[in-house]
Write the structure tokens for this entry.
Amino acid sequence: MLFNFGSFIRRSAFWSIDFLKGRPIRKAYNDVKYERENNVCNQQKLENILEYASKNVNFYKDKQYTKLQDFPVVSKEDYKNNYDAFVSDEYRETDKLYKTFTSGSTGTPFCAIQDLEKRIKHYASLIHLNESIGWKLGRKFLQIQIRERGGNTNSLKDFFQNTIVFSPTNLNRIKIKQIENTIRKKKSLKILQSYASSLHKLVDYIYENGLETNDYGLELIISDTDKLSEPLLVNLMTIFECPIYDRYGNNENGIIALKKNKNDYLVNTADFYVETLKLDSDMPVSKGERGRIVVTDFYNKAFPFIRYDTGDIGIANKQSKDQVVSLKEITGRNIDFVKTPSGKKIFVPDITSTFKYLFNIKKYQIIQDTQNYKITLKVVTKDVQEGKKGQYKLERLTDNECEIEIQNVSEIQNVSEIPVEKNGKYKIIKKI
């Protein structure tokens, strides 16, 4: 890797400013580095946040909880409905708090607050996590993502962070061409960070225009937030010939787990305690069983996240007692399912595994009318028979209980693909 003076200056400036402030991020960074490199057990951190919440947070006061499993599992809806009860008494009168906004992909957007310690720990953890995969602070990167609170860019901030920003909203062929040109021509650009749905569009453009043999020079691709499918992963590895990382996390907590290529997701145990619980109860799942991903954040005393049901589903691969150390699968959300008249629920993982080998379907979406259970299967494909195979597979999944209509969106006037949400992602299942 060639020495990059601009990256060095930005990195030096960041740590110099931190030094003048008393080195809060550097100290937190050193702690995180030591814990991760030495596999430090974080049982004490867990006990500290549980004890703190029991004494300072009204929702947990006087409940006589003694261990993690005594604490109730809470959802985003619970936080919204009982917001004041989750705010720590210690932080009610302070203005030194930071707000984070969720995208609302579960259907429940909300604003969570963070105290200064949590904010510092988040930055330190992110810097070390990035460095561990080859992304040094200050290196130029291209980002295809919605910014927090509306997605507005900040030119000065982007300059100091060495960022080239593209919005995933209305990502048409002209924008995709600009992104491809930028990656190919800017030799100092080595890192691409994006939603999986935007990476899918980039890959399609490259193959459709015969550009897959170009030397793009990327050293690292990071996919955030939405599902990075195996076919997309293989295409990215083939075209760009660099490691592909899939990060799992959220705005309110941070990066919870990280996956390289086809490996497992490694849980960020320095910052979080993760459980996988049954879909219909708060009991731990059996080995190999899909479960709800439930997170306890060791930090953020101002608004503790204890046994927070993220709304996501995963399969644990390695556990230390009830704590998940790695996940072999993170797919879909607990609220994303198709329902039959008899009450059977078909979740996103069931659908993605069924459609896995329909290679000529570029993208698909299942829309269900909740009043009559009718399903519309939208597919992007030039192969009509492949679309019919998808319809047949869906009929079998639903035990032929639902009326299923297939719609090839490439044949609809002025619609070239399934539209994404405002946050740049698209849902496999939608309810109307």
Remarks:
- DSSP finds twelve helices and 19 strands in the chain.
